[in-house]
Amino acid sequence: MTQQTDILTRIAICLPNLREAEKKVANTIKDDPVFCSQANISDIAKRVGVSEASVTRLAKALGCKDVREMKVLLAQSLAVGQRFVATPVNTDIGGIFQGIRDLLDHNEKRIDEMALKESVRVISKAENTIIFGCGGGSTIMAQEAQNRMFRLGIRCSAVTDGLMARMMASTLRAGDVLLVFSLTGYTPEVLEISMIAKRYGARVVAITQAGSPLATVMDCGLLMETFEGDDIYRPTSSRYAALLMLDILALRLAQVNGEDTQDNLRRIKVSLDEHRKGHDRLPLGD
């Protein structure tokens, strides 16, 4: 299935080759896409100061059948959210720190102790745990979960390729666990792979968005609430909420495993000290 280039991208590509009158219309659409998606052809022409024929010629130059189709495509482009087409809101460095603090404070109050206890019980008793996340932040979270859990004596492996995860999920059985990360809870691959794991009797533990489809599919897990601001340039703080949930889960798993965990950590520390030298308080890793 082919996807058409969105209309705003088409305008940017075609702009250098347009006639002057058409360029004026194109620039007006870029500057005020909401108005142009709602106004009729006469109002657009009047706003720009050109003839209605110029508006029609632009629509044709963009590959549209007529102005009506151009407006429909423009409305579809705006559906992603006004913040992605309007003049960006600029956040200073302090705003990044504040956004992270606000998100962590909000999610600290949402920790469900019963859900946490059940997630720890399921993972600690699992014969095999596959960890899956895809699409940026969740990919990193899956890899970090493996980094946290192997040192606790938990047999686990992280996979971030959708097809490989699909195959691995098909080998799971009762007594196994699929631990999934999704910052949104809507990614089709995550939902499909979770259903495959459940089909073969594995338990699905998720760290994901509250109220999402994945939150319904999972057997147990930790739910977070995230919120994106209007500054599209500011890195998403959602991954910090997921990392918070992973930290909490890893801490409780370590406490449950007790002496075995302590011995594993001691052996890792000895191995690292022999290798890199350094002081006593370096992290167990790098």
Automatic annotation (TrEMBL):
<dbReference type="Pfam" id="PF01380">
    <property type="entry name" value="SIS"/>
</dbReference>
<dbReference type="GO" id="GO:0003700">
    <property type="term" value="F:DNA-binding transcription factor activity"/>
</dbReference>
<keyword id="KW-0238">DNA-binding</keyword>
<dbReference type="InterPro" id="IPR000281">
    <property type="entry name" value="HTH_RpiR"/>
</dbReference>
<feature type="domain" description="HTH rpiR-type">
    <location>
        <begin position="5"/>
        <end position="81"/>
    </location>
</feature>
<dbReference type="InterPro" id="IPR046348">
    <property type="entry name" value="SIS_dom_sf"/>
</dbReference>
<protein>
    <submittedName>
        <fullName>Transcriptional regulator</fullName>
    </submittedName>
</protein>
<dbReference type="InterPro" id="IPR047640">
    <property type="entry name" value="RpiR-like"/>
</dbReference>
<dbReference type="GO" id="GO:1901135">
    <property type="term" value="P:carbohydrate derivative metabolic process"/>
</dbReference>
<dbReference type="InterPro" id="IPR036388">
    <property type="entry name" value="WH-like_DNA-bd_sf"/>
</dbReference>
<dbReference type="InterPro" id="IPR035472">
    <property type="entry name" value="RpiR-like_SIS"/>
</dbReference>
<dbReference type="GO" id="GO:0003677">
    <property type="term" value="F:DNA binding"/>
</dbReference>
<keyword id="KW-0804">Transcription</keyword>
<dbReference type="GO" id="GO:0097367">
    <property type="term" value="F:carbohydrate derivative binding"/>
</dbReference>
<dbReference type="Pfam" id="PF01418">
    <property type="entry name" value="HTH_6"/>
</dbReference>
<dbReference type="InterPro" id="IPR001347">
    <property type="entry name" value="SIS_dom"/>
</dbReference>
<dbReference type="InterPro" id="IPR009057">
    <property type="entry name" value="Homeodomain-like_sf"/>
</dbReference>
<feature type="domain" description="SIS">
    <location>
        <begin position="119"/>
        <end position="259"/>
    </location>
</feature>
<keyword id="KW-0805">Transcription regulation</keyword>
